[in-house]
Amino acid sequence: MKKFVLQFFVCVLIIPIFFLSGCLFSFDSQDEFSEGKITTFKACYRTETYEIDNTISTYAKLIVEQLYSNFGILNDYRHPSLIDNKPDDDNNSNYDKIRVQTDLEGIEINSNIFWKWSFSQNLDQANSLITPENAVSYYETPDVQNAYYSAFVPLYSITMEIVLYEIILNKTPTTFTVDINNEQGITKVYSDIAKTKEVYPTNENEECLPLSEIKNEFKTKAEYVGLTSSNKQVLNEYILNKIIGDEIIDGLYDRVIIDGQQKYLSFIIQQILQLEPVIDGLTEQKSIYSPYPASYIKDFEGASLYLSSTAQSFAHIPALEYQSLVLLPDENNYFLDISLAFECEYEIEITASLNYYNNQLKTELSTKIINISAGSWKNLFYFNFGGNRVEPFAVNQLKTSSQKVINNSTGLANLYSFDENSKIGILNKDKIYQSYFEFTFKVTKNPSKDYYPFKVGVFWLLNA
What is the pLDDT of residues 32-82, one digit of tens each? Predict the structure, then answer.
């Protein structure tokens, strides 16, 4: 037996004494063991602010480019349609449906009906046509394509990025005010009816207020990055009704020609919402439709997560919104029991579970509801490992002694999943090809707070 066993019997003998005397005491000194002699714990947690990468902005641009390539200019091969069943690029009536609508016979154009996310029909070098005739050849001209793309994609990519952040935050996405001046060929977009918050592409020295506001809210409130199935449905409805517009979707112009046949516009949208963004320089990334947690990870090595034997038992443990802890043994280990302690500055309820994974199979070993009073700590929350063994953790990409953000840019997004039921980050079991133990901590939340930090420490760990 290792030292943990001796410690167990000491604890059993003297715990009652300290409980009766009311002393705050733990039986480990974090300086008592050298690194490698105590299991490392890999923590996944939220902080007060999340570091955003370009996953959402890249996806926003992908959507808007595909709207351009399937409904605007279909023969711009620098920005091609990426879907299989795309509109016929040799059909005049398929072109420029963002700014004007062609009748079912492809003979006349109605310039009074246009998308809600549209732009000036009197655009320098890219005026909309009066009749569909020769539309294919007209929109093959590079100058026309450049002017059309520049007027639509950059502006509405920023607008779409705002919408995506709002949908992920479970907010009702903004209905934007689009101000088109056909006489001057100018289009402006605002996030408010009063037209005080303009949406526009920026550079390093500029700030688009509507975008910066929602990004700052996302940094402090987001629980995940990506689209759930319900998020995707909201986005689908938003594109149909708020970008294209219900006047078109419910009217005579809800069609596009594919393989010579008329198809509803939703047929194209459904295909666009199956596409994945490609982030430059990454060989592997997490699907936008498989959310990852807006969280961080860090390894607590040696005894750094053990309670100290001073009156300030938790002083060395940071207060964070812990979501999961994975045990990372340095050698093959047969764990018996573990006891965790918790401390919080406010009253909190945590549902703590211990799960065992082996060959991607999950076994829930124990679940406890822990209630902590403000300013106090509770110990002796026992968890039994059920006689299961784990080998040394071999996923080197996950090992980190410093805080790392979970996103596609760091490569960690693919190794973590967001549990929609518990709203926490856990290891992506389908990417971890070994056995491991993982604690999860689900905090009972209410709308009054965005961030729920607390402390968790190891009271003892018993192994064979």
Answer: 444 445 789 999 999 999 999 999 999 999 999 999 999 999 999 999 999
Separation between Cα atoms, residue 422 and residue 404, nearest integer Å: 22
Residue with tokens 């994974």: 357
User: What's the DSSP call for residue 94?
Assistant: G
> Counting every residue, how long is the chain?
464
Helix, strand, coil share (%) of the chain residues, nearest 5: 25, 25, 50
CA 380 from centre of chain: 35
Using alpha carbons only, give the angle 412, 413, 416 rounded to the nearest 5 degrees. Answer: 90
Neighbours of 345 (CB within 10 A): 13
CB 258 within 8 A of CB 267: yes
360: enclosing H helix or E strand? none
Q: How many Cβ atoms are within 10 Å of 427's Cβ, its own excluded?
A: 21
Residues 188, 191, 193, 194, Cα dihedral to 10°? -80
Q: What is the pTM of this model?
A: 0.91
- Per-residue pLDDT of 142-174, as tens digits, reads 999 999 999 999 999 999 999 999 999 999 999
What residue type is 114 in one-letter code? F
Closest to 252 in 3D by CA, of 103, 382, 117: 103
CA distance 119 to 329: 60
d(CA 271, CA 69): 13
Smallest CA-to-CA distance from 121 within 143, 152, 146, 92 is with 152
Residue 151 backbone phi and psi in degrees, to 5 = -80, -30
Tokens of 59: 């996806």
Q: How far apart are CA 128 and CA 181, in angstroms?
A: 14
Q: How far apart are CA 36 and CA 154, in angstroms?
A: 52
Delimit the domains of the chain by residue range. Answer: 3-50+292-463, 55-272
Identify the helix (H) or strand (E) that includes residue 282: none
Closest CA to 185 of 123, 227, 236, 241: 123
3-state secondary structure of 374: coil
- pLDDT digit string, tens, across residues 424-433: 999 999 999 9
Structure letter (DSSP) for residue 26: -
Contacts of 39 (CB under 8 A, 6+ apart): 327, 328, 329, 330, 333, 461
Q: How many CB atoms lie within 10 A of CB 316?
A: 17
